[in-house]
């Protein structure tokens, strides 16, 4: 709780800094709010004049002055119309401010996503990140709009009403002010306890979104393993937790209004009693009592709204805290000290050490020299460091010690965007986005012509199956690309890599999830792609790398065997054992 208290002023200062950009609009909103408040505080005064005139005419037995009453009523109608107009203009300005703020925050978050290291996404739930980018931003913008509107109108209205009350009757004003400590104490008491509930609600909503997102994406797996009941239990646990904190947050929000209404009614009763005594002593006009009563009723509403706004503001602070925590995540450090030029003649790993958690080493003292056009296959048991090498080569992570260089240039001295322009990747887990097949193939080269896209598809042996689809290259893939087979998805990713014309190609289990016929097509496409390029192949199916120039056998981050297929078999070591066992399994199948 102490840490949260420290964070609140920081979050508030940052929100005010964002709102500082809209000084002109907020000043205009304040101006129209002042006009609206002036119209509101004047109306009870003129209502009191009508009551006083009627009382005096009846008391003295005179004819009612309908002309005075009519003119005063018309003036009140004008006041009410102007008040409505001013409120509308102010509301429109604040809507513009809040929506523009939401737009800017979403843009900043989108930009932030592009500059965060892969390690951040490895350690954070996707659903929680989605909740920050959507729910928290929307909550912050909507609540700020309400908070600013109520704070402006409520605060100014309270000041205006108090001024008019003092001017009308200082005695009754003192009676009313006595009730204010009760209002303040109640607001502080409830707001203090609601803040933590709103923070827990935001966190619980993030966890819920994350669980639902993961469950939807793994629906087939859940059904295949009969995990429905366990999944439902997990959902119920998340839902129960979210229900508890949401209930407490909503309860604290809901209890504020009746408590403030009760306190306002106490003040109303006290004013009626004291005011009646003042009229009997001829110290006050009957119309002034009516005006004071109306002022009390009017001032009760902004006090209640400000009290309610305190809870809304706590929700805004909780959402803002989560958004700013995301925006404050350290970004990838970029430098542009050197640049690379085609072609890439050599790739060097020199005494590379790396660990993900800085405690458990994954790569230790790894060195490798690769010439242009060579095909390097990397094999080994799970956890040996095969995919880690690719992550380091692409600078998804940076080495702890040692260096990786292209053409003698340390890749840490090259901007990541430029570095990755030299690479093409085909992974086991295919990634295709919702869009046409044409758009997916051209993802790595948006300016590609129709002829280039078709040529890449032909080289990847997917042109024929694309032509059999109803809309051909204009066929729309759904979000999971489930309207085409796994093998067809993999062929499209190969076509995408072909079109981008990379200097270095990375294949990570590229054929492990396809059938034998599709695997042969992929291998034929790979043979075309490998010519004149450097190739890194990570594979468990050793039959796909028999023709590699060099095969590296990794174990615990070290190269334990190195050579071509025949030489490694002759060594009668780990590679031969892996190859023989796989060959025997294929023979049995």
From TrEMBL:
Top EC class for this record: hydrolase
SUPFAM superfamilies assigned to the protein according to its UniProt record, in alphabetical order: ABC transporter transmembrane region, P-loop containing nucleoside triphosphate hydrolases
Record-linked CDD domains: ABC_6TM_Tm288_like (cd18547)
Spans through the membrane: 251-277
Residues in ABC transmembrane type-1 domain copies: 27-315
InterPro entries, A to Z: AAA+_ATPase (IPR003593), ABC1_TM_dom (IPR011527), ABC1_TM_sf (IPR036640), ABC_transporter-like_ATP-bd (IPR003439), ABC_transporter-like_CS (IPR017871), P-loop_NTPase (IPR027417), Type_1_exporter (IPR039421)
Membrane topology classification: Multi-pass membrane protein
Chief site of localization: membrane
Keywords in alphabetical order: ATP-binding, Cell membrane, Hydrolase, Membrane, Nucleotide-binding, Transmembrane, Transmembrane helix, Transport
Signal peptide range in chain numbering: none
Domain spans labelled ABC transporter: 347-581
EC annotation from Swiss-Prot or TrEMBL: 3.6.3.-
Protein's name according to its UniProt entry: Lipid A export ATP-binding/permease protein MsbA
Annotated organism of origin: Urinicoccus massiliensis
């Amino acid at each position: 709780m102490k840490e949260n208290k420290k964070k609140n002023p920081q979050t508030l200062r940052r929100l005010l800094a964002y709102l500082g950009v809209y000084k002109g609009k907020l000043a205009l909103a304040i101006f129209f709010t002042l006009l609206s408040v002036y119209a509101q505080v004047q109306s009870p005064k003129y209502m009191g004049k009508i009551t006083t005139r009627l009382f005096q005419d009846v008391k003295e037995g005179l004819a009612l002055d309908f002309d005075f009453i009519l003119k005063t009523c018309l003036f009140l109608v004008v006041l009410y119309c102007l008040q409505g107009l001013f409120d509308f203009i102010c509301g429109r300005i604040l809507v513009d401010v809040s929506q523009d703020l939401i737009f800017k925050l979403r843009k900043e978050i989108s930009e932030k996503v592009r500059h965060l290291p892969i390690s951040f996404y490895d350690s954070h739930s996707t659903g929680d990140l989605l909740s920050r980018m959507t729910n928290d931003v929307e909550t912050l913008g909507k609540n700020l709009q309400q908070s600013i509107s109520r704070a402006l109108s409520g605060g100014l209205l309270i000041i205006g009403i108090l001024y008019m009350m003092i001017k009308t009757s200082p005695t009754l004003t003192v009676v009313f002010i006595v009730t204010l400590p009760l209002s303040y104490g109640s607001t502080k008491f409830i707001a203090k306890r609601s803040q933590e509930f709103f923070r827990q609600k935001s966190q619980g909503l993030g966890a819920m979104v994350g669980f639902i997102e993961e469950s939807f994406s793994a629906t087939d797996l859940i059904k295949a393993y009969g995990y429905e009941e366990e999944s439902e239990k997990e959902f119920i646990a998340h839902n129960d937790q979210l229900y508890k904190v949401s209930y407490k947050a909503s309860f604290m929000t809901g209890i504020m209004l009746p408590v403030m209404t009760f306190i306002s009614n106490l003040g109303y009763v006290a004013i009626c009693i004291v005011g009646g005594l003042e009229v009997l002593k001829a110290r006050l006009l009957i119309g002034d009592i009516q005006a004071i009563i109306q002022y009390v009723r009017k001032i009760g509403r902004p006090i209640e709204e400000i009290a309610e706004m305190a809870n809304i503001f706590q929700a805004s602070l909780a959402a803002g805290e989560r958004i700013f925590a995301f925006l404050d995540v350290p970004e990838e450090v970029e430098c542009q000290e050197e640049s690379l030029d085609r072609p890439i003649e050599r790739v060097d790993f020199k005494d590379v050490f790396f660990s993900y958690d800085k405690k458990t080493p994954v790569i230790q003292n790894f060195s490798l020299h690769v010439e242009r056009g060579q095909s390097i296959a990397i094999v080994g048991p799970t956890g040996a460091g095969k995919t880690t090498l690719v992550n380091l080569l692409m600078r998804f992570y940076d080495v702890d010690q040692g260096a990786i260089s292209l053409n003698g240039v340390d890749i840490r001295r090259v901007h990541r965007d430029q570095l990755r322009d030299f690479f093409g990747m085909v992974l086991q887990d295919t990634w295709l986005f919702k869009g046409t097949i044409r758009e997916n193939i051209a993802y790595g080269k948006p300016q590609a012509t129709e002829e280039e896209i078709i040529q890449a598809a032909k080289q990847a042996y997917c042109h024929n199956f694309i032509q059999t689809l109803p809309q051909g290259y204009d066929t729309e893939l759904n979000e999971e690309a489930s309207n085409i087979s796994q093998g067809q998805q993999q062929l499209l990713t190969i076509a995408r890599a072909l079109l981008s014309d990379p200097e270095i190609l990375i294949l990570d289990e590229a054929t492990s999830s396809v059938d034998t016929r599709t695997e042969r097509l992929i291998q034929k496409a790979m043979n075309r792609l490998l010519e004149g390029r450097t190739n890194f192949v990570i594979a468990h199916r050793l039959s796909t790398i028999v023709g590699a120039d060099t095969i590296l056998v990794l174990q615990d981050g070290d190269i334990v065997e190195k050579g071509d297929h025949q030489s490694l078999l002759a060594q009668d070591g780990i590679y031969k054992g892996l190859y023989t066992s796989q060959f025997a399994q294929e023979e049995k199948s």
